[in-house]
Amino acid sequence: MPTHEEIDKYDLKVGQIVDVSWYASNPGTIKIVWIHPEEAADSQAESKPEKPKKPTGNTPKPWTPNYAEIKPIVSGKTVLLVGDSVYTENLRRVTDAYDATLTEVDSIDRERFEAMVESADMLIIALHYVSHRDSNLAVDLAKAHGLTYATFNQHAKIPFEIALRTAAQRYEAAQVNAEE
Fold this sequence. Notes:
Layout lengths: L3 H7 L6 E4 L9 E4 L3 H10 L24 H4 L3 E5 L5 H10 L3 E5 L4 H10 L2 E5 L5 H13 L3 E5 L4 H23 L1
Parallel strand pairs: 3-4, 3-5, 5-6
Antiparallel strand pairs: 1-2
Helix pairs in contact: 4-7, 5-6
């Protein structure tokens, strides 16, 4: 909002189009239509009441499982995601569709990670979002604790769901082998 001194100095009028230069060495001109501060207050008082606004942003739709055959295997299980947690909420929609719980760890502290492995049923590693050292540690700990695991290369729902299917199939196979 221009000051009263600027309004007087440049003789600004209501609704006037104003040219503004940002730098003397590189003049860039933009058009601004402005309203005098006193008239802006008057026009707001006379304006109609505002309509209720629709919520902004995208409301995520529930995920539809692509592999219904693994739902009985995954349902009620805890899936541990190893990798960057930036997209975890997006991936959580997938596990929610399968009635599973998603927990995540993005930087592996061996003691903390071992405790998380003990409480998980399956492990999924996001290869692009974890270091080689951490992914190798995750695989070693999963094997040591008899935890099934799978990997995927990008934080997208489809590759994650494929990795979930792989981990579920390995989990089921491990359960069958244990019974034999």
